[in-house]
Structures are given as structure tokens and as C-alpha cells.
């Protein structure tokens, strides 16, 4: 850290009283020391960023603050008073609110019902609802947190669901709001709106703790930032006195390349050809409405778009597991051969044999078996491979050795192949999936949100591996909500909206603003709706 800078760690800033002060907090899970003697001071009325590598101990620290874990040692002070936070109810009573990465909302309840849920002990529903309606109206006006109180959660966009989580905390009179990677699922416009809300809350004197892997957000919105590394708090600095490069180095302990270093693509023959792909789900909703594109060997096609516009269904179909009850039409060719889009031959195992690797969007549901050990997960889907079998039996020694090697190469921490997937931090879980899929050297790699929740050191590494795969002549479909990631990695960018491809751009000839408009469905009159397809191959209607 640069000399002469205030170190905010540990003790309160003389200018503002501390809303939260942690002194000497430690927490171990068996042999893993998740938090070691942590000091942290968060001045009242500030936005405080917490950053750190995957597994650095950020979530553990926040879970201690919210009463999910009991620390092994240390002291917590809220507004200068020592407090024991035994459970989340105690945290809420102390004025602490938490907005989790995975929202805790009841999907088929309304906004109002969700807001009062658990907050109105023993109260009758009707008075609670009418009180909540009044409070909600007030909060909405005060902080621009508009949501329809009578809408069910499932009908709301992710950004609006997040607003409900914030409203829930404010309804419980939270003075300190902790947000764990809040922008991971938001569009750039929604993220901007969230930041304005957070600034509004700060201006009202509330205190915000923001966990994020995005240094741009730290620089844009926080007043102070604390950096964790391997369970320790290594620095706390004023944001205006630091830079993304310095923060990256503090986090990882070495210099990090923040931009992707790659040569122009040299695309060859098409590997994947998708024509007029259509999909209607089991509820009759049209999810894909005539999607067409090509990906050639040696290129990365980035697919930008707000979550929920058909990207998930596209990846599922290409990966060989369309949702049950879905009706799929159109044509997909891989290396010139048609791929079955339904029936028994449409399955993930067959797709792997066809040369398709897949890093799914939801690592916990589709990428890993959470109760299985890391070594089992590294072989997941490849257990029949000859190198993992000895006669009739699986060769567990070979599988373990392979897992240990991949975990070493991808720097999965802790380097324990026997640990269950659920006990790795989110970013390390992602590294396990990425290692398994990339190391198989597939002809086509489907990637959904490759770096969601992954720290910058690991992002640098994963991006490098993706580019290497491209340079080795493989085709890559990259689906990401991160426009920066799409723009820096892709050779071509297509934008998806409402089950259609709205247009295609070259990354160096577009801007996040232009892509943002396409993502919002603003019609792109100049761009063909058929990304990368020569006119003679286009559907007659599209040609017209
Ligand atoms: N319940 C648990 N049992 C065993 N180990 C755990 C448990 N929870 C966390 N850990 C370990 O504690 C360490 C810190 O994890 P934590 O989730 O706090 O990290 P993080 O900084 O939030 O990471 P990420 O950025 O990847 O979310 C990791 O090594 C993790 O594997």
C-alpha cells in the first residue's frame, strides 16, 4: 500500500463514528482458516467495498456479521456497542440487513407479502399488509425503489426482485445494508440504477457494505475499500487514493492483466451452424423465435443479453438437455452433421462425444453435484473415459490423480480433492467446472457466464485459457451478461432479446451503449437478424 495513506482497518475513523467495527474476528472450518484476526471499521454513512480473491473469506465474515456463523474469536461493535449476533433475528434487531446473491423471496407470493413475511410476528395479515403498503409507498418515493406491491415475485425482472430484497431490509429498519455481489445478475442500466439507490441511502445516513469482484464498481461507488486475502484483511484504504491496478495487486499478491491480451481471430470452416432454432416451453411460452448463427473454428462468438431472453434455453438445447416438455424446431449442425434436438439421442453424454464441452450458467445446479467430492466432480460426465476405467471397474486412483492435477493447474483452493463441492467458495466451484470442460479440448465450447463470482486473478486465467482454446482452432460460444467480458473476449458479438438475435457487431466497432440498446430490444434496423450467415444460407423470410 502506498505510504502516507490512511489505513482505515481496525479502528474507527475520527471524522465519522463507526457503524460497524470488527476486532480480531477469526473463524475456522476444520483445517481451513476462513477468517484470521480480522479488524474492520466501517464509518457511518459510507459505502464500504470488500474485495478479495475467491475463498478469501468475505462471505464468511459477512455471515458472522449477519449471525449465520459464530466466530471462534473476536468482537463485533454496532454503533460503538459490543454485541453478540447469535442469529439473523439479532442482526436485524441491531439494524443490519442483508441482500444475498441468491434472493430469499417466495416466488408465488406478492411483493407486499414477501416484505412482511417474518417481519410481523403474530400479527394478522390484513393490517400488516396495509401498513406495509403505506411504508412501501414512502420508501419507493424516497429511494426510487418502485415496484408494484401486488405483483408476484415470479413476474418481476431480476433487477426488480433485488429491489424487493432491499425494500425488505429497509422495512425492517436496516441502518446497515450488506449486499453480496449485487450486480452479478443485473444489466448495466439496472446496475446504474442500483448505484443511484445506494448513493441515496448513503446520503440519508445509512451505511452500505458492498462485496464485489468488479473493481470498476468499487472505484465508481465506494468511499472506502477493504481487501481480503487468504482469510486476512490486508488493506483498508480510501477509494479516491487507490486505483484498480493497485487493488488487483493487493487482492492477488501479484500484478494482474486487467485487459484480455489476444491476437485477431483466424476463423476457418464453420463448426456450429444454427438455423431458425425455435423453442416453446412446457407452459407454451415461446423462448426461442427463429435463432440463426454460425461459429467457425478459431473464433469466439459472444452472445450478449439480459438474462431470461432465451440464452439459457439456447445453451440447454445445444448442450443436449432441453427442458422437459419443450418443443424444439429448426436445425443445428456440428461439423456438418445434424444434431438431434429431441428424443433419446439428444443428451449431454452424446453431445460430449460429438465434441461439445459445456460450462453451464448455473454451476450449482447443472455444473456440479454439490454433495460429491471435488475429484468426483472433475470426472463428472467423463467417468466412462478409457483412462478412468480398469476393466469393469472405475479407476479411482487415476480419477483422483487427474483431479489433483487439474486443481493444481486451475489453482482451485483449498487444493483438497476430497472436499465436497458445496464446501468450496463460489469462485472455486466455478474453477472446478471450467477445468473439467476446457481441459477436454472440445471442438465447440459452450460457456454460460464463465466468470460469475470469480475473482480477477482467476478471470485473467480463465480468459487466457478460452483464448488459447480459440487459437487452437476451436469454436466458442460465450454467453455473458458482462458486457466488458463479451467485448474483450469475443471476435463477434450477437445480441439476444426476447428469443431473437437483434443484431451483430464487431467488438472494436461498437460501444456498451449501443449493445445496451440492442439488449433492451431497441430494433437495430441496420443489422441483419442473422448473425454471421451468408445471405444464401438464410431463411427466405429473413432474406426478405
Ligand atoms: N461451511 C463450510 N465448510 C467448510 N469450509 C468452508 C465453509 N464455508 C466456507 N468454507 C471455506 O472457507 C474459505 C472462505 O470461504 P468464503 O466463502 O468466505 O470466501 P469468499 O471470499 O466469499 O469467496 P468467493 O469470492 O469465491 O465467494 C474457503 O476456503 C471455503 O472453502
UniProtKB/TrEMBL annotation:
Gene3D superfamilies: P-loop containing nucleotide triphosphate hydrolases. PROSITE patterns: ABC_TRANSPORTER_1, ABC_TRANSPORTER_2. Residues 336-355 are annotated as: Disordered. GO terms for molecular function: ATP binding. It comes from the Bacteria. Keywords: ATP-binding, Nucleotide-binding. Residues 20-255, 272-523 form the ABC transporter domain. The keyword Metal-binding does not apply. This is ABC transporter ATP-binding protein. It comes from Paracoccus rhizosphaerae. The lineage of its organism: Bacteria, Pseudomonadati, Pseudomonadota, Alphaproteobacteria, Rhodobacterales.
